[in-house]
Amino acid sequence: MSRLGKLSHNLYTGRVSYDFVGKRKTWFVISALVLLLSIGTLATRGLTLGIEFKGGAEYSVPVSNPTTAEVTAARDAVASEGVTASSVTIVGGDTIRVQTPTLDTTESNAVNAALAKEFGVADTDIKVQMVGPTWGSEVSKNAAKALAVFLFLVALFLALYFEWPMALAGLIALVHDVLITVGIYALSGFEVTPATVIGFLTILGFSLYDTVVVFDKVRENTAGLTAGSRMTYSDAANLALNQTLARSINTSIVALLPVLSILVVGVVMLGAGTLNDLALALFVGMLVGTYSSIFIATPILAVIKERQPEMKALRKRVENRRKNAGAEGELLIPVTAGAYVAPAGPRQQRVKKTRSKRQGS
To answer: What is the separation of C-alpha 96 from the centre of its chain, rounded to a whole number of angstroms?
Structure first.
């Protein structure tokens, strides 16, 4: 068995354990700081909305091997007609994309002619796309509706399949993922396009998948837990995290590698704008989703459950048993830092040894 395989086996059996739930305050502080940074970025810089959301005009000019100098030339050509370009980028390695605010027909024709003259192409070779602000507003509303419906269905699924504390913890983790991803997106200055919205919805599904895997193991470990006094709910939840840790990391790495290739090949080498929008949202969201499923969702679930009366009573029984374990000579197996359980099977009795008395002759 390889070292990774042995570590995975030891994590599953509890021989090796990391106290994720016990150190939840540390993870909560880290997440709070990142969330504050994301919210602050959104409040100060805001999102760079594409013309699909705010409306405008887009001109795609065919240019062989465009350079930064030609990007500047395109911006100057538009400015010569009294229009300020909101965005000028190279797309696909053979096209310069120019985006402007909403223009009327006369202004649009003038900008089109100026770009055609600057790059020596026919007016008809330039692809023009006009997006009205009403259509952009409709796209924004539909995106918000899609997100609201998704969150509602997620809450309903978790509440029916598991229980309401898991639904609440899962929703908090999803909101955590969205806010951080959107904040990083605002910090990068990338445009928000329909591809970005698709990326956001995709990462929510990925984050939910990882969380459901952990919650399913938590439910298995906590079945009938209150009938005994071996582990607290936090101990059982932390054991579930360790048992699914290798799977979560492996799944995340396998999912991130193709997205990383899209970022490197599609963005750096090909300069594809749509891939740019989609890949960044997926890459950041998957990383944050993996983090939240381990460090946020399950610790929050443990906090909610530990407030219930039956779990408080269970914790008292477990603590009393651990205090008396040494005096009774009970063998305990560590499952978390400072948490122990008795091994399965019949309990062995301590053998009392006595010294035989020597008989006198």
So the answer is: 33
Rounded to whole angstroms, how far apart are CA atoms 293 and 54?
34
Q: What is the pLDDT of residues 2-36, one digit of tens each?
A: 565 666 666 666 566 788 888 999 999 999 999 99
Residues of the chain with pLDDT under 50: 327-334, 337-338, 340, 342-361
Total-model pTM: 0.74
Tokens linked to 15: 């021989």
Long-range (24+ apart) CB contacts under 8 A made by 44-50 are 45/186, 45/187, 45/189, 46/186, 47/182, 47/185, 47/186, 47/192, 48/186, 48/189, 48/190, 48/191, 48/192, 49/136, 49/191, 49/192, 50/99, 50/191, 50/192, 50/193
Of 3.40.50.360, 1.10.443.10, 3.30.70.100, 3.30.70.3400, the CATH number of 56-131 is: 3.30.70.3400
Close Cβ partners of 19 (under 8 Å, ≥ 6 residues apart): 238, 336, 337, 338
Q: Is the dihedral of CA 84, 86, 89, 94 positive or negative?
A: negative
Inter-residue contact 223 to 268 (CB < 8 Å): no
Which CATH code of 2.40.50.100, 1.20.1640.10, 3.40.50.300, 3.40.50.720 fits the domain covering 3-49+135-310? Answer: 1.20.1640.10
Domain ranges across the chain: 3-49+135-310, 56-131
